[in-house]
Amino acid sequence: MTASLTGGGLPDSSVDRWFYALKPASWPKLVVPALFGQLLGASATGQLSLAALGWGFGFTVFGLAFIVLLNDWGDREVDALKRRMFPDGCSPKTIPDGILRSRSVGVAGVACGVVTALLAGGAEVALGRSMAFETGVLCMLVFVAYTLPPVRLNYRGGGELLEMFGVGVALPLYNFYLQAGSIGPVALPWVAGFAVLSLASGVASGLSDEQSDRAGGKRTFASTFGNAAARRLTEASVLAGCGIWVAAAVVRPDWTPVWAALPAIAIVLWNFAAMRRVSAEAVTNAFGAQSAYKHFLHRAIWHSTTVAAVLLWLHSSLA
């Protein structure tokens, strides 16, 4: 193991290495949209199915492991390049820093993908959801197109749009479907706003990798158009996603009631203001400021959607 890893104080046990490789700090990026979809589905039916919740979270957890591990396997070359370019500017990488072997990561990722597909099939049978397997596999194929050959859209440009669809649309709607049995109209304005917020997250994720992605031939919005343009698009997407909820609360308050939309909108705007305060400092290679910028962005997305979904579910369950 490299000195940077040992110096970082990371444990050496195999269990802790795998835990590190699974990147627990990134889990809310998929867990929150899954919970969002589940609670929206429960608010549409008036009851929360624990069985649907369990199948949905099983699919999401193993799908998360599938994504994280195969993303590391697919990005191992550009990750190694970033470690050479910025040895003190980023955390140790699973494969380049020898935390786990490349083959082990790839095999484990494929195994988690098989389990994810099996869970989608199990949900179809156990819950009586006739499209659970097919739509679950579609969710997985979104990631395959994101990082893996032959498509590798995150290397060709457009990966942020694919993330917007996968994280912002497919995953919450899939969990809504497992919970409710169909896609109800109540989901549409909420998911539309969340999808645009997910675009903001996808664009911002490339800020810290701008120069290494460019050197490694990875075409993200940040590596193609630069740091300042990426921050402008991130902030515009936050306001646009919030604006969709505002418009929906005015036009269709039966789907987007004001009492649920206002807290979500307030949370987004509060954290947007915090983002703007650190935005000017989050320039190229300012990794600390970029981390703070993304911290407020993620709070805007994850906290707002969770609060809105919980409020909608509580209201429907108590009605």
Secondary-structure-based class equals mainly alpha
Summed over residues and divided by their number, the pLDDT gives a mean of: 93
Low-confidence stretches: 1-8
Strand content: under 5%
Helical residue percent band: over 70%
Tell me the Rg in angstroms. Answer: 20 Å
For the largest beta-sheet, the strand count, sense and barrel status come to: none
> What is the end-to-end distance?
57 Å
Number of distinct beta strands: 0
Element order: H for helix, E for strand: HHHHHHHHHHHHHHH
Number of helices: 15
The structural domain count equals 1
* Shape field: globular
Structure description:
The protein has 319 residues and is mainly alpha-helical. The chain has 15 helices and no strands. The protein has helices at 3-7, 14-21, 28-45, 50-74, 76-85, 102-127, 132-147, 153-156, 159-180, 187-205, 210-215, 221-225, 227-251, 258-279, 287-318. Helix 3 runs parallel beside helix 9 (159-180), helix 4 runs antiparallel to helix 6 (102-127) and helix 14 (258-279) runs antiparallel to helix 15 (287-318). The chain is globular and about 60 Å long. The N and C termini lie far apart (57 Å). Residues 1-8 have low confidence and may be disordered.
